[in-house]
UniProtKB/TrEMBL annotation:
The gene is bglK. GO terms for molecular function: beta-glucosidase activity. This is Putative beta-glucosidase (Glycosyl hydrolase,family3). It comes from Nostocoides japonicum T1-X7. InterPro entries: Cellulose_deg_GH3, Fn3-like, GH, Glyco_hydro_3_AS, Glyco_hydro_3_C, Glyco_hydro_3_C_sf, Glyco_hydro_3_N, Glyco_hydro_3_N_sf. Its EC number is 3.2.1.21. Pfam families: Fn3-like (PF14310), Glyco_hydro_3 (PF00933), Glyco_hydro_3_C (PF01915). Keywords: Carbohydrate metabolism, Glycosidase, Hydrolase. Belongs to the glycosyl hydrolase 3 family. PROSITE patterns: GLYCOSYL_HYDROL_F3 (PS00775), PA14 (PS51820). The keyword Hydrolase applies. SMART domains: Fn3_like. It comes from the Bacteria. Residues 413-562 form the PA14 domain.
């Protein structure tokens, strides 16, 4: 058989149909369920190998969480969105795509293009923005970048999956027009950009499971002509016949799926048509051809012609991620031009907060990755400020989890690692073991070590020998959802069930409950500890060991921080959230910073007028002290290079290039809720989410959508608009009127003052990112698609343009729009 190319269109399709015809019914049905957690079944008789899938929004984990196989850790999705730059999004896509290729992954489970509907959303850190068009633009650019390196993508979660609470059973109640204009819009744009896969969500949409919905069959596959693969979220297929007819093509994970148990019988009985099965298998084969998983069909991207992907810790990767983290950093406040810092004038710097030494690089849950060794802000600033005396104080602790056990205090029996992890069967026999060097949350169940039969694992046992250089009271913690024991020097100190905060299986991974025992330790005297637990769910079994000295209370820690800040030339206070606040599987009940971090900031600001607060979060938080500090720097979860990038921004080596892709509200009142009421999450705000709601109500946010400061001054003028065949073109003159080079984001918002159609008060229509030298002037052009002036007409089931005058407001944030141009469209 001669080789064909997956870009050959009709010829490839004929070849795929010929191979499909060689499969019997049982084989075809088998192909529609995963072989295991991360791969599909092969069909050697037609040259189909197994296809490997992996989560990949901030890196590529691969099939196991392991410090032996680290991944790049890119800045979080909101950080990429804060650049407002499709080129940056595409570059991050390419680096993640290369990492997938390096790890042998064919399909990237991402990016997330659900909207940041509510700031209470627990998985906010994986989504781009509250705005549908910004999400669509950046999501499409990232997908194109990822797929340019060879793998396919599966954008997720289709659709109206903006809440984590009860996500397996909740029902999103969304009006048709709102669905079309907001929540479906990013998916549509990505399909049109060539996205090869879509993931169907857990939730119901207007009463129907998303996996079964006609939104998949009629809109995605029908109206949009999507010919790719629809993959279920993990465990989302709960019906044999309804889901098969509803459009989901591949049930993951395997092998024990609902389809594996009953789909073959349903087809044989005529309850599901074989043509339906054939369409699903053809889509799987089409994807396989595109990623190079079918013999004698060349993939869309000739991987052999691409440069070999660099390892995660290469200089090339580090520099790209460092630059991107700086460009996504948002300078929210900068009174008296406190920043950038001048290293030549600094004698002493106080660094306060746990984030100075252990920054959070990514969110919790399936999107998390284990990054290579990173440089902390303290280490980066020590290098950047060689003439200054740096003093660190811990400040108030934001988490209740005991710090991760490290080689500083733990040694595996016999050496060779921090702990020995053993896998036991029901009789207590050891099925296999491994030495671990890092004991941050380890995920099993979705990939045990080679040679360990997953179905036989009944318990997991971790053993370590603890030593300390200084005697005193310490805490040892073992975390994992299930029945647990902690044995210290042969004595049982804990013996009870560890129960997660909710029934979502992923909670056992993103936030496993911990058992804690207090130990009176003597310097140099070893203590042997064994933590054993029976996982509540074999499908997701997490293990974490923690060890730390019993800390003083928060009052004492805050007092220490105040003393460190008093008299320092500048005080840098690091605050943020943890996996206890932002992770997959639950939503936030408050927007306040955890613990007593607000008290910490206020106390430091009271004694140092040059207090700079560094905020590391994945979602909006309240900042009641915002008017009392000199500067606020928002780093998001900045990825593995957050420390050096922050040092670059603080010292002026790099411009803080970010602008807010989401509104930071001033309070918690009047915000959309992600929490179901009698099973329903009602999208009662309609079209008005985020900045649109603030604009409608007149409520002042703490920091507006699009806001962000830099280190120079700008003017925007000379705005003009003209109609084009594709929509509207708007031009503006941008001038750097300051004394140094800088980066600016010129933003455009549309409005319709007199309209027979209900509309938002205004909506984001596009942006242009420019970097100019001092005194530089440039005319920027922004293309606005015609679709952004149209509305979904429910009566006709189509897009419609209401003729008349639209206003285009131009400026540097949704609240700073000094220029306006009108355009009449017909």
């Amino acid at each position: 058989m001669s080789e064909v190319h997956s870009r050959d269109g009709e010829r490839t399709e004929q070849e795929l149909r010929a191979r499909l015809a060689r499969l019997d019914l049982a084989t075809k049905v088998r192909l529609l369920s995963g072989r295991d957690h991360w791969s599909t079944y092969p069909a050697e008789e037609i040259g189909l190998r197994s296809i490997v899938l992996s989560d990949g929004t901030v890196g590529i984990r691969g099939v196991r969480w392991s410090e032996e196989d680290t991944s790049i850790n890119t800045p979080s999705t909101p950080a990429v969105a804060a650049t407002f730059d499709v080129e940056v999004a595409a570059a991050m896509g390419r680096v993640i795509g290369r990492e997938a290729r390096r790890k042998g992954v064919d399909v990237i489970l991402g990016p997330v293009v659900n909207l940041q509907r509510s700031p209470f959303g627990g998985r906010h850190f994986e989504a781009f923005s509250e705005d549908p068009w910004l999400t669509a633009q950046l999501g499409a650019a990232m997908v194109v970048g990822m797929q340019a390196e060879g793998p396919a993508t599966t954008v997720k979660h289709f659709v109206a999956n903006e809440a984590e609470t009860d996500r397996l059973t909740s029902n999103s109640v969304v009006a048709e027009r709102v669905l079309r204009e907001l929540y479906l819009a990013p998916f549509e744009e990505i399909v049109r950009a060539g996205g090869l896969g879509v993931m169907s969500a857990y939730n119901r949409v207007n009463g129907v499971l998303a996996t079964d919905s006609d939104l998949v069959t009629d809109v995605l596959k029908g109206e949009w002509s999507f010919d790719g693969l629809v993959v279920s979220d993990w465990g989302a297929v709960r019906s044999v016949e309804d889901t098969a007819r509803g459009g989901t093509d591949l049930a993951m994970p395997g092998p024990h799926t609902t389809w594996a148990a009953g789909l073959l019988d349903a087809v044989r009985a005529g309850r599901v048509a074989e043509d339906t099965i054939d369409d699903k298998v053809l889509r799987l084969l089409r994807l396989a051809a595109r990623v190079g998983a079918l013999d004698r069909i060349a993939p869309l991207v000739e991987v052999r012609s691409l440069p070999r992907p660099p390892v995660a810790e290469s200089d090339e990767v580090r520099e790209l991620l460092r630059r991107t983290a700086a460009r996504g950093t948002v300078l929210l406040r900068n009174e008296g031009r406190t920043l950038p810092l001048d290293p030549s004038t600094l004698g002493s710097v106080a660094l306060i907060g746990v984030g100075a030494t252990t920054p959070r690089s990514n969110g919790g849950g399936s999107a998390s990755v284990i990054a290579p060794a990173t440089v902390s802000p303290l280490e980066a600033l020590t290098a950047a400020l060689p003439g200054a005396r740096l003093r660190h104080a811990e400040g108030a602790r934001p988490v209740s989890l005991v710090r991760t056990l490290t080689a500083a205090n733990g040694t595996a029996p016999g050496g060779g690692g921090v702990a020995l992890v053993e896998f036991l069967d029901a009789a207590g026999r050891v099925l296999g073991s491994e030495l671990r060097d890092r004991l941050d949350t380890l995920i099993y169940g979705m990939g045990y070590p080679d040679g360990v039969p997953e179905d036989e694992v009944a318990a997991i046992r971790a053993s370590t020998r603890l030593t300390v250089p200084r005697g005193g009271d310490y805490l040892f913690a073992g975390a994992g959802a299930g029945y647990a024991t902690i044995i210290v020097d042969g004595e049982t100190r804990f013996d009870a069930e560890l129960v997660p905060i909710n029934a979502d299986a992923v909670i056992g991974m993103s936030l496993p409950p911990q058992a804690v025992v207090e130990l009176a330790m003597t310097a140099g005297r070893p203590v042997d500890v064994v933590f054993t637990y029976t996982p509540a769910r074999r499908t997701v079994a997490a293990l974490r060991l923690g060890f730390d000295e019993v800390a003083p209370d928060d009052d004492a820690l805050i007092d220490d921080a105040v003393e460190a800040a008093r008299g320092a030339d500048v005080a840098l206070v690091f605050v943020g959230t943890s996996s206890e606040d932002e992770a997959e599987g639950f939503d936030r009940t408050t927007l306040r910073l955890p613990g007593r971090q607000d008290d910490l900031v206020s106390a430091v600001a009271a004694v140092n007028t040059r207090t700079v607060v560094v905020v590391s979060v994945g979602a909006p938080v309240l900042m009641p002290w915002r008017d009392d500090v000199a500067a606020i720097v928002l780093t998001w979860f900045g990825g593995q290079e957050m420390g050096p990038a922050l040092a670059d921004v603080l010292t002026g080596v790099a411009e803080p290039g970010g602008r807010l892709p989401v509104t930071f509200p001033a309070g918690e009142e009047g915000l959309p809720s992600p929490f179901p009421v009698e099973g329903d999450v009602v999208y009662s705000e309609g079209l008005d989410i985020g900045y649109r709601a603030h604009e409608r109500s007149g409520r002042e946010p703490a920091y507006a959508f699009g806001h962000g400061l830099g280190y120079t001054d700008w003017s925007v003028g000379g705005v003009a608009a003209r109609e084009t065949a594709a929509g509207v073109e708007i031009t503006a003159q941008l001038a750097n009127t300051g004394s140094r080079r800088g980066r600016q984001v010129v933003q455009v918002y549309a409005s319709r003052r007199q309209s027979a159609v209900e509309r938002p008060a205004m909506w984001y229509a596009g942006a242009a990112v420019r970097e100019l030298p001092a005194g530089g002037v440039e005319t920027v052009t922004i293309e606005i698609p015609r679709r952004l002036f149209e509305h979904w007409d429910v009566a006709t089931g189509s897009w419609a343009l209401e003729p008349g005058l639209f206003h285009l407001r131009v400026g540097t944030s949704s609240r700073e729009l000094p220029q306006t141009a009108g355009i009449t469209l017909t």
